[in-house]
Batch of 3 targets.
Target 1
Amino acid sequence: MGYCTMDGDTAGSISPIGGVDKDFVKKWLVWAQTELGYPALSHVNNLQPTAELRPLEEKQTDERDLMPYVLLNRIERLAFYNRLSPQQVLATLVQEEPATDPEQLKTYVKRFYSLWSRNQWKRERYAPSFHLDDYNVDPRSWLRFPILSGGYTEELNAL
């Protein structure tokens, strides 16, 4: 959505986890704490991700500013992978999330599309990132040759 700081989050020559969403990272860190036995990760896992752009007394968090990560990811997937319109995304969410107020869902959909559109210029400046799956919203590498690849070496050798 472009929820980042320029020349902070976006700086660098490569972004190794740029293609991994925060919800996945949070769940992976909890898994690593419990399954891999890294108890020190509890300090990280007890934090709420925040851009820390406001005074500390405001207790800013990313999910409070944007929306729950699970919904953000679902809207993104519906919008860009499934190529649904904002109306179709909202209708789908209303069906999938009956416990959530439809007006709140509408707010989230509007926020998502507004921020996505407004912040395209930021995504253009991101460092290239790895994509190990078939879903990618990077405007420079969407459905293009991935940064991590074998350059068709095996396939060309088999010709």
Target 2
Amino acid sequence: MPELIAPTERLHSSWLAAHAEWTPGDHQDGAGMRLAEENAFASPEVFASWVRRLREQSDRTRPLAEGWVHATHWWIVDDGAYAGAIDLRHELNDFLLRAGGHIGYSIRPSARRRGLATWALGAVLPEARALGLDRVLVTCDEDNLASARAIERNGGVLEDTRETELGLKRRYWITL
């Protein structure tokens, strides 16, 4: 049975194995990779520092750098192993409204086609409601039909498909 957990140093080796499945340079939406000060995740110290930043980003009392919004990060764990990540951005800035949305997620390649994205998105929607949001924007690449299905299965209504700084994106709204 999958579960959502806060990022933890305990899954370092599992996270590294998942990270190795991605093509170098691929974006892992919802994983918070941009919060890492360096891309040396094999180092336990670098990994621990990154995990700490992921957890701190949800603390609304902490000021954030220009252009960032508070977000809560979870790891999707299946059978005790890291299977992916999902984050909930507490509000939309201009960039997120255009391209990124409230929720981002990614599933490691070996864990795809098992319904984890659909499940995780559904599990995070009550968290968005608890933050006071009445609807959320979720986007996906125009050609990512698996992600589009996950969003639609969770009530996503397609607003449009548009060119963004992240490429051609389908934009869905989910009413909470």
Target 3
Amino acid sequence: MTPAAIIFDFDGVIADSEVRANRTLAESLTAIGLPTTYEECLRDYCGHNWQETERRIVARFGRPLPADFREQHRARAQIRFAEGFAPVPGAPAFLDTLGDRPRAIASSSSPAYIAASLDRFGLAHHFGRHVYSADGWERGKPHPDIYLAAAKGLGLDPAACLAIEDSPIGARAALAAGMTVIGFCGAGHILDRVAHGAKLREVGVHQVAHSYDEVLLHR
């Protein structure tokens, strides 16, 4: 296709962050008496905004989280991310090929985290003000709201946009917005790319890419 714009998820598409993020969440939950593995965090929480993640945790925990849980979790995450944090392989070079094609980020993560990460990677200039976050929204992914907001911010019909998503939850959101969707399997948390690609195909993505080399666009 020749998309009018490309809308990127962030974690697992731009930032190679899901391993660190989900290991940290597993540690934080285990520390409050809810033993949780990294694999369980990937399975149950990946792709959701914090509001939905908290609802899911509370349902499993059977009681509200401690009042300072998110603050303590963020402090733990800052330490882990300081140990080393990089873009997804190929993402910076791919962005450099886009010229003046409109693009945006549509993410479940917090605006402050996205902004700090883009600055760290030297990629903020690629997106400017077109960074959209569903953090704090009642309806995050898999609802289409964040993708519809990104298309509206760009001034484009969602059907003219291409979305790149690594999680089935996010892919469902972009599909529900009426976008063409590439299921991306190039980040470090995806160990079996064939199996993960199959999961993305099950939700209806139009293409699966195992790396940015496989994301082909008509210029």
